[in-house]
Design a protein that fits this description.
Strand content of chain B: 15-25%
Number of helices of chain A: 5
CATH topology of chain A: Pyruvate-ferredoxin Oxidoreductase, domain 3
Number of strands of chain A: 6
Structural class of chain A: alpha/beta
Helix content of chain B: 40-55%
Radius of gyration of chain B: 21 Å
Largest sheet of chain A: 6 strands, mixed
CATH architecture of the largest domain in chain B: 3-Layer(aba) Sandwich
Largest interface: A-B, 20 and 24 residues
Number of helices of chain B: 12
Oligomer: heterodimer
Number of strands of chain B: 15
CATH architecture of chain A: 3-Layer(aba) Sandwich
Number of domains of chain B: 2
CATH topology of the largest domain in chain B: Rossmann fold
Strand order of the largest sheet of chain A: 2-3-1-4-5-6
Order of helices and strands of chain B: EHEHEHEHEHEHEEHHEEHEEHEHEHE
Shape of chain A: globular
Strand order of the largest sheet of chain B: 3-2-4-5-7-6-12
Distance between the termini of chain A: 16 Å
CATH class of chain A: Alpha Beta
Number of domains of chain A: 1
Distance between the termini of chain B: 49 Å
Shape of chain B: globular
Radius of gyration of chain A: 16 Å
Structural class of chain B: alpha/beta
CATH class of the largest domain in chain B: Alpha Beta
Helix content of chain A: 25-40%
Chain lengths: 193, 389
């Protein structure tokens, strides 16, 4: 379900976790479903392991703005090491991803444990052990597609229409077996909510 | 018409493929490399039959294309920033020989210090090379402008560069409506070269030494060609509108008809600013935008007419000319308005250098400044947006 207002998503992770792929997969799938979308990565030093971000805007109408996403509706955190132990989004240790985040922001986190509860608890935190699911299904610790499954469930997007597009795009780059494994990751993420 | 999800770079490569170049020669550089990569894939997949030449530098790229174009080939390349700067010497040779080579680009800052992000320094750096220069606001524009650019360049017999904002447009995946291959190619047509250096039945010499007794006339004819290009651009736009339904001019006006305060801007920032204009209009403030598309030939008369009713106009430059006279676009707009009977007050603001963020809030602040000046307050004529204190 795409709201009348533009839905803004920020992906945070580390180089090599498939963050750009995730934002492009989602943008393309939404466009193929007749919506308007933007998908763009943030570029810095191109090093595997460096913190990176990517962005999505989803809308029913044409998107004009080209500014960065300042007040995201959703933040997806790909790497467990990006989240402070106390889980407080206001903690300066979370400054990589907490810009514009409020108690209302949907947080989707790749964590091997429950999100730490604290005094200023956010209302919409969803965690999943995406790394271990990806290891099990793909054989590599790439959490992007599992988190994508969760994201499309939480945004109430049309699962069946989107996955066709995901599959087509992944099939251009990856061998059939890996594509299938990624599709299973999406399904697991989707069913985890 | 098909609706695809393409980045600005991919959209440009798609237009290149549909224009069926004979020769593509390139050397990779951020942020335009994806144009080269996408085109190489089209050739490898058999979707495009084209000679793909890799060179050891951009200077060589331009030189190889100069040769290929002299032989009568339709020639494309892509580059930006240092790559475009390295081509600079050959750009003049190409335009002087009136070879319609077309560069697809996504603009990027110039070193030093080194920075890979988008601004318009490279685009402005080549403004006296006699290339037709067209700028795009989004991926759709990148596609549409490239197709039109091929037609314009070949008809005006001048080279052209079609650019968009590095990263902001070049790396943003968005919806792009593309024409069917046959329709696009019917619009482009086969390249008809007036001469070929390989035509042994009609041997010619290209670019011989031209001494004081002939040089000026040749250069005057080159300037005439740029004046002529001004007539070609609207004609091609009209034809393109018929097949695409999308309208293009020298610039795009947004709420400019009755505007008292306005900005002039190139590229993606115009779209971001559009949202600010909507807000200002809701408050009853008569604000507008002139989003420039064609920088060379410079549409001075048209700009003068479009801005003549404004009281204050701020020209936003994503590059500096280091002339102490304001940004390069500012200087051009100011000279265009010299003959205007009702000259608006002009401001120059430099923004977004090296990819520095330009957001709606900053554009709102600019309009606040413009409105203050309109009320008689004195403010600096020259300034920056988003500069850290």
């Amino acid at each position: 379900m795409v709201k009348d207002k533009i839905t803004e998503i920020r992906w945070h992770g580390r180089g090599g976790q498939g963050i750009k792929t995730a934002s492009f997969l989602l943008a393309e799938a939404m466009i193929n479903c007749g919506f308007f979308a933007q998908g763009f990565p943030e570029y810095g030093p191109e090093k595997s392991g460096a913190t990176v971000a990517a962005y999505n805007r989803l809308s029913k109408t044409r998107i004009l703005t080209h500014q960065s996403i300042k007040n995201p509706d959703v933040v997806v955190l790909m790497d467990p090491s990006m989240i402070s132990k106390d889980g407080d989004f206001k903690n300066p240790l979370n400054s990589i991803w907490n810009m514009g985040v409020t108690e209302k922001t949907i947080i989707i986190a790749n964590l091997p444990r429950e999100f730490p509860k604290n005094n200023c608890c956010m209302e919409n935190i969803y965690t999943i052990n995406a790394t271990s699911i990806a290891r099990k299904l793909i054989g590599k610790p790439i959490p992007n597609t599992t988190l994508m499954g969760m994201l499309i469930r939480l945004l109430k997007l049309d699962y069946h229409k989107l996955i066709q597009s995901f599959e087509d795009r992944l099939a251009k780059k990856l061998p059939h077996k890996i594509v299938e494994a990624n599709m299973k990751c999406i399904e697991e993420g989707y069913n985890a909510v | 018409m098909k609706r695809l999800a393409l980045t600005g770079n991919e959209a440009m490569a798609y237009a290149m493929k549909q224009s069926k170049p004979d020769v593509f020669c390139g050397y990779p550089i951020t942020p335009t490399t994806d144009i080269l990569v996408t085109l190489a894939k089209y050739i490898a997949n058999g979707e495009l039959d084209c000679e793909f030449v890799t060179a050891e530098s951009e200077h060589s790229v331009a030189s190889i294309l100069y040769g290929a174009s002299s032989a009568g080939a339709r020639c494309f390349t892509c580059t930006a920033s240092q790559g475009l700067a390295l081509m600079h010497e050959v750009l003049h040779i190409i335009s002087g020989a009136r070879l319609p080579i077309i560069i697809g680009s996504s603009s990027r800052s110039l070193s030093s210090p080194i920075n890979v992000h988008g601004d318009h320094a490279d685009f402005m750096d080549m403004r006296d090379t006699s290339f037709i220069q067209i700028f795009s606001e989004n991926a759709q524009d990148s596609y549409d402008n490239f197709l039109q650019g091929v037609r314009i360049a070949e008809e005006a017999r001048l080279p052209a560069i079609i650019s968009s904002d590095g990263f902001i447009t070049s790396h943003n995946l968005e919806a792009v409506e593309v024409l069917k291959d046959e329709i696009a190619y019917k619009f482009i047509g086969d390249y008809k070269t007036p001469f070929s250096i390989l035509d042994i039945k009609n041997p010619i010499t290209i670019n011989p030494l031209s001494l004081p007794n002939s040089f000026m006339e040749i250069k005057k004819s080159q300037a005439d060609a740029m004046r002529q290009a001004k007539k070609v651009i609207p004609k091609v736009a009209l034809e393109y509108e018929k097949i695409s339904g999308r309208q293009y001019g020298f610039f795009r006006e947004y709420c400019l008809d009755d505007a008292k305060v306005a900005i002039v801007v190139l590229g993606s920032t115009a779209e971001t600013a559009q949202l600010v204009i909507d807000e200002l209009r809701n408050k009853g403030i008569k604000a507008g935008i002139l989003a420039l598309r064609v920088f060379r030939p410079f549409p001075a008369k048209e700009i003068m007419a479009a801005l003549s009713n404004c009281k204050v106009v701020c020209i936003l430059d994503r590059a500096d000319a280091y002339s102490s006279l304001g940004g390069p676009l500012f200087v051009e707009v100011a000279s265009a308005l010299y003959k205007s009977k009702s000259r608006p007050i002009l401001l120059s603001r430099i923004y977004g250098l090296g990819g520095r963020e330009i957001d709606e809030e900053m554009i709102k602040n600019i309009f606040e400044e413009i409105i203050k000046i309109n009320k008689g307050q004195k403010l600096n004529e020259f300034g920056y947006i988003g500069l850290k204190k």
